[in-house]
Write a structure and sequence with these properties.
Layout: H1 3-39, H2 44-53, H3 57-65, H4 73-84, H5 86-95, H6 103-111, H7 115-127, H8 132-160, H9 171-182, H10 187-206, H11 211-234
Length: 235
């Protein structure tokens, strides 16, 4: 094996190791999603295909929350758009960190972009060069675990019962709490989180549906811009 292949393998393994805690943490979330999907009448094949093709935990849970027979495809698509609109911002952000990626590699990376993968890739890019092999080490195992645990959850959904009864419903917010904590930078981060949370809670009380997600994201972006402008003015 030549030196270049060894370097690529080392980079890949490095990404796998860095992502390992979050890959493990996504296991109960995938199981819960599979169980919820099964309770809504989706077959194991349908559940697995949804996780494989959509690969967006937040929008998948929202879709299951509003699922009905027959399915309202317009409502499902619109809800998924609202929940995943943040991927535009994440894609723009991480895209600037990929000078070593070829065009096809960058497109493939974006297809496997998820909140956890984006967060780890951003942290890596702040420390050193982000490579395709390291990113693949983040994304591929995480993607496979998500798909496989969704399948497993759908198969044993009848035995799990209500996920809330055994506390598995908290797995999803717990992962995002850890991600937010890793990005904590003091007052600036606190202001952004406070604005986002306040907007989300307010809109959730006033409007039905998933508008609170878009409102929280928009408020966070505005708060970030205001904070940055304020800091530059003071400097």
């Amino acid at each position: 094996m030549d030196v270049k292949r060894v370097d690529i393998l080392d980079e890949f393994i490095g990404g796998v190791r860095a992502m390992a805690p979050l890959t493990v943490a996504v296991v109960p979330i995938g199981l819960v999603f599979g169980a919820v999907a099964a309770s809504k009448g989706l077959s194991s094949l349908e559940t697995t295909m949804m996780s494989a093709l959509v690969f967006a935990g937040g929008s998948q849970f929202v879709a299951m929350d509003i699922w009905m027979h027959p399915a309202s495809w317009g409502a499902l698509a619109f809800s998924a758009l609202l929940v995943n609109i943040r991927h535009v911002l994440m894609g723009v952000s991480i895209g600037t960190r990929m000078p070593s990626f070829s065009g096809p590699a960058k497109y493939a990376a974006m297809l496997l972009l998820a909140d956890e993968i984006w967060a780890m890739a951003e942290l890596r890019a702040e420390e050193t060069r982000l490579t395709p092999a390291w990113y693949a080490g983040l994304a591929i195992p995480f993607y496979c675990v998500w798909v496989l645990t969704s399948l497993a959850g759908s198969l044993v959904g009848a035995f799990l019962g209500d996920p809330k009864a055994i506390g598995l419903d908290f797995a999803f917010p717990a992962v995002f709490t850890v991600l937010v904590a890793s990005f904590w930078k003091g007052r600036e981060t606190g202001a952004v989180l406070a604005a986002s949370a306040a907007a989300a809670v307010l809109v959730h009380q006033l409007l039905p549906g998933v508008w609170y997600i878009a409102a929280g994201a928009a408020a966070g972006v505005v708060a970030t811009l205001v904070t940055r402008v304020g800091q530059e003015a003071c400097a």
